[in-house]
Amino acid sequence: MKSQLLKKAFVKTLPVMAGYIVLGIGFGILLRNAGFQVGYALAMSLFIYAGSMQYVGVGLLAGGASVLSVILTTVMVNARHLFYSISMIGTYKDAGKYKPYMIFGLTDETYSLLCDGTAPEGCDANRYRFLVSLFNQCYWVTGSVLGSLLGAVLPFSTAGIEFSMTALFIASFTEQWMSTHDHIPALTGLLSTFVCLLLFGSDRFLIPAMLLMTLALSLLKGKEERP
Amino acid sequence: MNAVILVAAMALTTAALRFLPFLLFEKKTPPFVVYLGKVLPAALIGMLVVYCLKDVQIASATHGLPELIAGAAVALLQAWKRNSLLSILAGTLLYMVLVQTIF
């Protein structure tokens, strides 16, 4: 029974495995090229465990940013996790001892695997979700360490590997688009962000974009509910 | 040493963002928060796509062509095969070939 649960959780995370290992390697390489050894890659992937933030973090570490600007940047880059958590409150309600780790491990990818709230029949749903979260972090940590260790000796040029992050989000966006009928939220996000990028410039558009899309979506909700 | 403090700041801030909604709304979830939880993920992924492409220079150098070509390949592959793994790997390889050999 327990091995069956392990297997089901493992199979569920397979689509994330290669992606995380590739993205993790990309992160490890960038961090190493910025002058930080494998211990940093390991610590960041264990304790921060947020892909895009770790990519941004490489620049912050290399540039010797201040603690305050690091905190503000983290809030800007990771504010979306507030919303992931908001929508998992119901699903994670009875997770008991597994809950703290499951909340900690709620990345974009883990969220996309678990957000529909389903679990295999006859299984301990909370244990299953815990294992899915844990397997994903194992891939991420493995990739980061590999990238950091092998980055220097890879026999080919890794220029352009950073595109794997962009590819991940384009694939998620396309998949989300294909599997839903209501494209208003996706378009709202895309357009709000693009408008704010033009208005505020590439350094400070994320927070305005999130405020704008929240405002737009709440106005759309009001419209929807009118008789 | 300074870098260790910065890593800790990133870790604690990220964890705070993940735990805060549970601490605030777990007991009683306002309907508006429920609605946001439903519509925001799709909007946020759209935001992330734009975020990743924010530094592409349209006016100079490669005119954003490698990003356009590889990005379109990812979207088309995903729409066709519905396999995220395949789309991400193929798109990244294509991008690497483009920036290393052609552009």
Write up this protein.
The complex is a heterodimer of chains A (227) and B (103). Chain A is an all-alpha fold. Chain A contains 11 helices and no strands. Chain A folds into 2 domains: 2-159, no CATH class; 180-227, no CATH class. Chain A has helices at residues 2-33, 38-47, 51-63, 67-78, 80-88, 99-104, 108-114, 125-150, 163-178, 184-200, 206-225. The model of chain A has no long low-confidence stretch (mean pLDDT 88). Chain B is mainly alpha-helical and 103 residues long. Chain B has a domain at 57-103. Chain B contains 4 helices and no strands. The model of chain B has no long low-confidence stretch (mean pLDDT 89). The chains are: A mainly alpha (227), B mainly alpha (103). At the A-B interface, helix 1, helix 2, helix 3, helix 4 and helix 5 of A face helix 1, helix 2, helix 3 and helix 4 of B.
